[in-house]
Amino acid sequence: MFRRKLSALEYHNPTGFDCKDETEFRNFIVWLEDQKIRHYKIEDRGNLRNIPSSDWPKYFEKYLQDVNCPFGVQERPESVDWLLGLAVRFEYGDNVEKYRNCKPATEANDAQKSADPLINLDINNPDFKAGVSALANLLKIQRHDDYLVMLKAIRILIQERLSPDAIAKASQAKEGLPVALDKHLLGFDTGDASLNEAARILRLLHIEELRDLQTKINEAIVAVQAIIADPKTDHRLGKVGR
């Protein structure tokens, strides 16, 4: 979700950045403050630069407060996205002439955007924000400072997971033969009849998984054999094969 902003800021690894990696995350925050945001004076950045410190989360929390970030330390993806947005705004402000000469979007892209009904929404309407937030919480979608982005994520989730076709496909139960659990020996006794029955079920499910795995292994063997079953003869070497 950060790739485009990281690329715009010329971050060295826009596609591989992982905000869940603690060391990488801390180094990224230092880079962002040193190179792009520059909210603190150079002499005041010592705490953020002290990456190994156990108190670093406290320093980062204070930093978020100082730059007026609406998200806290526990909301890492949201705070990272907000800081990236702030950095992009500063980057544009420092290079207005450079970006002023950028070519505008093509007419085709404009037509595509105008065809999107979400573009015409009033994203600053309090009712709109409250509704999107409620839907995001209900569907457990990650929060974002751009409510239109959240709404697009909600739309994608509904189309892929909650459409009639998706629900019908997910509701299709696998048909199988009935199994008499009492005819299958467990091999041990837990001392509880209910636990014994549950253990038999788990064993049968495990056996089913092993069968599926064996089938896939057999298919792989057949595929390999189809490749090597017709070796070429090299008469100069007096042997079969390459």
UniProtKB/TrEMBL annotation:
Matching InterPro entries: RTRAF
Taxonomic superkingdom: Eukaryota
One Pfam family of this chain: RLL
PANTHER family xref list: CLE
Family of the protein in this entry: Belongs to the RTRAF family.
Name the record gives this protein: RNA transcription, translation and transport factor protein
Organism: Phoxinus phoxinus
Upper lineage: Eukaryota, Metazoa, Chordata, Craniata, Vertebrata
